[in-house]
Design brief:
The protein is an alpha/beta fold. The chain has 3 domains: about 180 residues, FAD/NAD(P)-binding domain; about 110 residues, D-Amino Acid Oxidase, Chain A, domain 2 (2-Layer Sandwich); about 110 residues, no CATH class. It contains 11 helices and 16 strands. It is globular, with a radius of gyration of 22 Å. The structure holds flavin-adenine dinucleotide (FAD). The site of flavin-adenine dinucleotide has 39 residues, from α1, β2, β3, β7 and β10.
Length: about 475
């Protein structure tokens, strides 16, 4: 249902943000008969208009058990190709993926949620919240072009407002979901969709990633073809968000000429590249998607994992609403389920992400040229939970052969810490909220230790 200007102000669930995470949450909960409102600052017809690389591994849809309709798929990839900084050497990572048409995908997710009874308050911005007796009771929202604030009440509030979270940053600081990350926990990205003057001559069937610390320090640059004729491409880069680098500037300097053509879309944005929030729920607030950093820390892909996380949190919100008792205890199961499904892998890849951010162009070339890592091991690394054993097993044997003991030692330490945090998230995740604070201290201790071993300065915390 879509109502404009006239709507009920009391809902079971108030979802802030109509990105993939919010729309899927709204759909899942509304389809069980609960009243759901979606608050979104964009106008309805721009929902889905997200600056993105648009690439998603097909396995995500297989795991979700549904897939978007054919007209939403712009292009199909047979895998990912990763080039070293000299661009002479490349690794092919197997695994089918697709380029989605983000607007159509967003509109499709929106329609699905509205068809199941969710209500959209588009052009509404969440500005404030009201906390009473330790629960959020109201969201104060401003409708574009209208005076004053409206009050929207809910039993559960879901923050799905993206990388710069709008709701959880307004919560009391002692609530663990209000955690402030380091700036370096993000990449800042810029990308353009371009219709090229001449079609691509190679790699049309791949999502292509380039490692290059001059062009994309602390990240990578990419070109993801978006049409079968090789004429439309999504080109961009992400750099570590430490205040030193500007991705737009680097795009102009290094990529503009190489991909000249007619501009179709341009934009920038933040991508969380870290482990998930320590808990996705506190009191009656649930956090999901980029707002909870449910993103792969190494490649920054977050569409699939946001959908997965939103399905998981929805299940526990529904259960809690059915029981009529809403708090972090009744919804705690979502944390364990998410950590097993994806969060522990993220935690482990967060360690790898910091390691990769310390490598030089020479290191990358050496690793790729000597085939120290192959496509299969990278596939294991990015898609399966049990990845460290795979990659270090291969690397160890190769390195022994090639005699790079310093890198071998670094990789042994990397494996040790990747395993340690995985265990912490899988086996030692707290059974109840009262044990969370102690667990967080242990998590911080291990990450701090690894940072100090590799000389990684995380810099400042974000100001929001
Ligand atoms: C440049 C770039 C490239 C990327 N490339 C890829 C890729 O190729 N593949 C991939 O899988 N992932 C990619 N990602 C990551 C992916 O886009 C995100 O992980 C995913 O879209 C997160 O979805 P979300 O629903 O959590 O957040 P979002 O899609 O950001 O949605 C949040 C919504 O909340 C709304 N909102 C925010 N504040 C308020 C407020 N105060 N009031 C009301 N509404 C509000 C916003 O308007 C927005 O619609 C990329 C990200 C970037 C920035």
């Amino acid at each position: 249902m879509f109502l404009s200007g006239d709507y009920r102000l009391k809902y079971d669930v108030v979802v802030v943000g109509a990105g993939v995470a919010g729309l899927n949450t709204a759909y899942e909960i509304a389809s069980k008969g609960f009243n759901v409102a979606i608050i979104e600052s964009k106008p309805r017809n721009r929902i889905g208009d997200k600056t993105c690389g648009d690439a998603i591994g097909t396995h995500h849809f297989n795991e979700l058990g549904w897939k978007p309709s054919e007209d939403i798929i712009d292009h199909i990839y047979s895998g990912v190709k990763i080039y070293d900084p000299t661009e002479e050497y490349a690794i092919e990572v197997p695994g089918e993926g697709v380029s989605v048409n983000r607007i159509k995908f967003g509109q499709w997710l929106l329609k699905r949620a509205l068809d199941h009874g969710a209500i959209l308050l588009d052009r509404h911005v969440l500005l404030k919240i009201v906390v009473s007796n330790n629960f959020v009771v109201k969201a104060l929202v401003k409708e574009s072009g209208k005076p004053g604030l409206k009050e929207v009440e809910g039993k559960v509030f879901v923050d799905a407002s993206g990388a710069k979270p709008a709701l959880r940053t307004k919560l009391p600081l002692e609530w663990p979901v209000s955690e402030r990350p380091y700036m370096t926990d993000y990449n800042i990205a810029y990308r353009e969709v371009v219709e090229l003057e001449k079609p691509l001559e190679k790699d049309i069937e791949y999502a292509v990633i380039y490692l290059n610390t001059e062009i994309a320090p602390g990240g990578y640059w990419w070109f993801f073809p978006k049409s079968r004729d090789g004429l439309i491409v999504n080109v961009g880069l992400g750099v570590i968000w430490d205040g030193k680098y500007n991705p737009r500037f680097n795009y102009e300097r290094y990529l503009r000429k190489r991909f000249s053509g007619k501009l179709i879309h341009r934009g920038g944005g933040l991508v969380p590249t870290r482990r998930p929030l320590p808990t996705l729920v506190w009191r009656n607030v649930v956090v999901v998607g980029d707002a909870a950093y449910t993103v792969n820390p190494v490649h920054g892909g977050g569409i699939g994992s946001s959908l997965l996380a939103s399905s998981i949190v929805s299940k526990y919100i529904i259960e809690s609403l059915e029981k009529g008792v809403i708090n972090e205890e009744t919804m705690w199961g979502m944390n364990r389920e998410y950590m097993v499904a994806y969060g522990a892998k993220q935690a482990s890849l967060d360690i790898l992400r910091m390691y990769l951010q310390k490598l030089s162009d020479e290191d990358f070339t050496w690793l790729i040229k000597n085939r120290i890592v192959d496509g299969e091991s990278i596939y294991m690394l990015s898609s399966k939970a049990d990845l460290a054993r795979e990659i270090v097993h291969n690397i160890s044997s190769m390195l022994r052969l090639l005699g790079k003991p310093s890198i071998l030692n670094q990789l042994r330490t990397l494996k040790k810490y990747m395993d340690l945090v995985k265990k912490l998230y899988l086996d030692n995740y707290p059974d109840k909220p009262s044990e969370l604070a102690k667990w967080i201290v242990e998590v911080e201790r291990i990450y701090d230790k690894y940072r100090s071993i590799i000389g990684y300065d995380p810099g400042e915390r974000v100001k929001w």
